[in-house]
Amino acid sequence: MTVLTFASVPKAQPGDRVAILSPAFAAPAVSEGVHEQAMRRLNEVTGLVPVEYETTRQLGASAEARAADVTAAFADPTIRAVLATIGGDDQITVIPHIDVDVLAANPKPFLGYSDNMNLHNLLWSLGVPSFYGGSTQVHLGPGPHLDDVHLASLRAALLSGGVMTITDPGESEDFGLPWTDPRALTEFGVREPTEPWTWVGPNAVVEGRTWGGCIEVIDQIALAGRMPSVADLAGAILLLETSEELPAADDVKRWVRALGERGILASVAGVLVARPPVSGLNSAVPSADERVRLREVQRDTIIDQVTRYNPDTVICVGVPFGHTRPQWIVPHGGTVRLDGSTQTVSADYS
Question: Which of 123, 213, 251, 317 has the fewest CB neighbours in a 10 Å radius?
């Protein structure tokens, strides 16, 4: 059996060029103001020079054209990292058109979440670590400033590396202002206090390479026959989160249960679950009590399914990654450590 090995990916330095791509939805086309503020801020806080590609602002670009941009960004030796503007819904159709030999031969940091799980999974299969999180259109462009935890993990992922303790910023928003609203450039969405993280399992320390992300996208990856082998996930830390489409707890139950039936839950050493959004921009916002209840129901559903298949795994629920703001960018294919005794999470951004 061949053991999957991961490449060492060099960091960028201030003054280097980084690609800004829309491999799923071209969000900059909806609000160039938010996009351009994101580009300015990226340069200001990292010293990196953003480089846009043909489809970065192109709504309705073909899967082939978006794949060509991904391949070109990895092939260009002057591009030191690749950042997605946002997720979307159809990146699964882009993956077959990407030149995998180019990506394998030119490993570099890739940042994105949600539908970008498709590209993370492809890189993982090639032994190229990446970083789950980061959206220039969601976390860099809107609001009065960057959140501290996002900025710290952005710099670690792109520039400095090192091990960081993942902390709770104490507040969270499910969604921000519409990008077409001028206030989106200067105001956050409605934020509320976060709940304490929930820890389940032995008071043990587990550490492993991460794999996972948005559960709705994992479902598509599985149906497309692109999942990692169970053997390659042995000892891994599984990342799970849900999107702004607000899937019901019963749907989450079925997805997580299917991971158990596949053998993945029994294989992993730990499970890191994000704080989920429970309200959306285009739907009625539940009451504060109902929002707490919805998060608790999803938490309990996931814990029930994971422990059913692996009672010895360490589980932490409520961590601010995925579809939330403030957002930690976390390693994908890199190392995360869950300490059940001290109830701390740390991540290696090397």
Answer: 251
